[in-house]
């Protein structure tokens, strides 16, 4: 989760593993900072990089199947078996009904290996946690305050 990886007020960070840029600017005369994370920008996708095969592939391995289940959606892909095969799953942070998912979501990732010598596909399954949308009522142009509490700027009695 990007905000848990390196949110450091007053510093600019590039989080290489998640490909996120974070910028923090102090507000003069206060202890507050304006924070920007590229992961909150429109179009940012949460990703998982999977290494499917190593440098050598058994001659009987014919295909590798990938199945990702997240928030009711199922994504599948099949590849011919090759050395150094990888797959990147990019999640749009939406559920099966195209609604935004806030917080984190757990993905069930299954990788199946199809061999010419075996009638069934052999599956390995793991889970991964992916970041959904963040709820941030102080978001202004992609920038937010680095405080844990949100202020209610609306006038009235509530």
TrEMBL record:
Domain annotation Teneurin 1-4-like FN-plug: ranges: 50-131
Species of provenance: Timema podura (Walking stick)
Pfam families reported in the protein's UniProt record: FN-plug_TEN1-4
Keywords: Disulfide bond, EGF-like domain, Repeat
Keyword rRNA processing: no
Name this protein carries in UniProt: Teneurin 1-4-like FN-plug domain-containing protein
Top-level taxonomic group: Eukaryota
Record bears the keyword Repeat: yes
């Amino acid at each position: 989760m990007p905000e848990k990886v390196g949110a450091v007020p007053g510093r600019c960070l590039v989080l290489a593993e998640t490909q996120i840029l974070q910028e923090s600017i102090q507000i003069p005369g206060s202890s507050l900072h304006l924070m920007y994370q590229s992961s909150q920008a429109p179009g940012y996708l949460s990703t998982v990089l999977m290494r499917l095969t190593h440098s050598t592939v058994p001659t009987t391995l014919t295909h590798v199947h990938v199945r990702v289940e997240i928030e009711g959606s199922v994504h599948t892909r099949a590849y011919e078996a090759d050395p150094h095969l990888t797959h990147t799953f990019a999640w749009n942070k939406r559920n099966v009904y195209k609604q935004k998912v806030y917080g984190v979501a757990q993905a069930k990732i299954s990788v199946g290996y199809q061999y010419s010598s075996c009638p069934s596909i052999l599956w390995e399954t793991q889970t991964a946690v992916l970041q959904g949308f963040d709820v941030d009522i102080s978001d202004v142009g992609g920038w937010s305050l680095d405080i844990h509490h949100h202020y209610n700027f609306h006038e009235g009695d509530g």
